[in-house]
Amino acid sequence: MSPPLVVVLGASGFVGARLVRMLARCPVRIRAVGPARPVPAAAGAIDGADVVVHLAARTATGGWDDDGNALAERADVGLVRALVAAVRPGRAPVVVSTSTAGVPGGSAHGRHRPAAELALAAATRAGRVRGISLRLPSVYGTADGPGMVARMVRRAIAGQPLVLRGEAAERDLLHVDDVVTALLAAIAHADALAGRHWAVGTGTPVRVAELSAAIAAAVAEHRGRAPVPVVVAEPPAPADDHRGAVADPVAFHAVTGWVARVPLAAGLADVVGCALLDSV
């Protein structure tokens, strides 16, 4: 009997590349699909799949907030519907899709996410797939991509002040390695999780002002110089679907046993250390 086939959509991305490396250690076959595929081609790539991990929901600019961009809707909603339509009757593969843990409506992705989750849940009830939606908070783990932590680290390394708009804002910051273990846990417990969305995160909010100070201090320690200043600017930036969002992972933990294991201090130290090496 052949090992199960796992298809990763968005395999060259921030999370996807790490997931593929982890899957390579497992007794599975892997089909890695990059983010540049059009919707029909990406849907066709799942033929024969036992598991599909859909990570290709970011827009062309690499962020969630590309308002008005039709590409965002195609990735969030159109691809989910195309995946379901492409499944052979009777197979019911596991489909794990990721989205954000914030309040819908703040960004293009926030508006499209509920429709994508509903499409996956409906397909699960119809017996076409075993669909699982994981709602993620702010994910970090590198300084060369999108995201608040990456932007702050790059600015601090460049000696630029870290500018805050609304210092009381909080985020739940989840390391990319913990995202990968959550995806693997979802696959392993697919039958118990299918048909619903699940919050995945640390469950512990971090004030953005404190995060900024920690990043400035970490860069300063590596560089042997004074930390860059942290400046509070007003008025606050418009709210988005990550701001203030804290993912409560209790339900997901109860089913899978998963917990976030990378402490924020250690995760930030790794990001800063790697970024400084890249800048040498």
UniProtKB/TrEMBL annotation:
Q: Which residues form the NAD-dependent epimerase/dehydratase domain?
A: 6-201
Q: Which domain of life is it from?
A: Bacteria
Signal peptide interval: none
Return the Gene3D superfamilies for the record.
NAD(P)-binding Rossmann-like Domain
One Pfam family, please name it: Epimerase
InterPro entries per the UniProt record, alphabetical: Epimerase_deHydtase, Lipid_A_modif_metabolic_enz, NAD(P)-bd_dom_sf
Q: Which PANTHER family does the entry link to?
A: BIFUNCTIONAL POLYMYXIN RESISTANCE PROTEIN ARNA, UDP-D-APIOSE_UDP-D-XYLOSE SYNTHASE 2
- Name under which the protein is recorded: Nucleoside-diphosphate-sugar epimerase
Give the species: Amycolatopsis magusensis
